[in-house]
């Protein structure tokens, strides 16, 4: 959301129904290591999530998809699925979006941790993409910039 890593032609706030944003994946690569895992966001089942939908030029789709698969599927913890999302500023308009939903059967799934356990992992995590703390703070800042309040993430950010 705050660092897409690919070129896009449009960016819209969007709502996904049937999944919610959660710190539910132990990060052994980007924000932690196997010995000192971090914790990253995923889409977990149930509820809804307001985030960002990107439109990519058709000519760039194959390269974008390859990039996303390399970045998001490092440990195969997410299922790549297509879901309808509602564009917030155009509520009558729904579009198909590629989303990555956490696989609850994956050994890195961490969707049942307490807030305190989450805080511990975020504080200790540091991986290929940097400190886990920075990831959470950047996410909260981008959500706030978009007018989205995620109370769970704000609670963590205030304690980092």
What features would you describe in this structure?
The chain has a single domain (10-154), classed as Hypothetical upf0131 protein ytfp (Roll). 27% of the residues lie in helices and 37% in strands. It has 4 helices and 6 strands. The strands form 2 sheets. Strands 2-1-3-4 form a 4-stranded antiparallel sheet. This is glutathione-specific gamma-glutamylcyclotransferase. Keywords: Lyase. Its EC number is 4.3.2.7. It comes from Blastochloris viridis.
Secondary structure blueprint with pairings:
Elements: E1 10-27, E2 38-55, H1 61-72, E3 78-87, E4 94-102, H2 115-124, E5 126-127, E6 130-131, H3 132-145, H4 151-157
Antiparallel strand pairs: 1-2, 1-3, 3-4, 5-6
Helix pairs in contact: 3-4
Key terms for this structure?
4-stranded antiparallel beta sheet, GGCT-like_sf, single chain, globular, alpha+beta, glutathione specific gamma-glutamylcyclotransferase activity
Give me a quick take on this structure.
The longest helix has 14 residues, at 132-145. This protein has 160 residues and is an alpha+beta fold.
Biggest sheet features: 4 strands, antiparallel
Q: Briefly, what CATH class?
A: Alpha Beta
Q: In CATH terms, what is the fold-level topology? A: Hypothetical upf0131 protein ytfp
Q: Multimeric state of these chains?
A: single chain
How would you describe the shape? globular
The domain count comes to 1
Number of strands: 6
Based on the structure given, which CATH architecture is correct? Roll
Which structural category do the helix and sheet elements fall into? alpha+beta
Question: How widely separated are the two ends?
Answer: 21 Å
Radius of gyration: 15 Å
The SSE string, one letter per element, is: EEHEEHEEHH
On the 0-100 scale, what is the average pLDDT? Answer: 96
Percent of residues in beta strands: 35-45%
Low-confidence region ranges: none
Strand neighbour order, sheet with most strands: 2-1-3-4
Helix count from the secondary structure assignment: 4
Helix content: 25-40%
Keywords: Lyase
Protein name: glutathione-specific gamma-glutamylcyclotransferase
GO molecular function, one term: glutathione specific gamma-glutamylcyclotransferase activity
GO cellular component, one term: cytoplasm
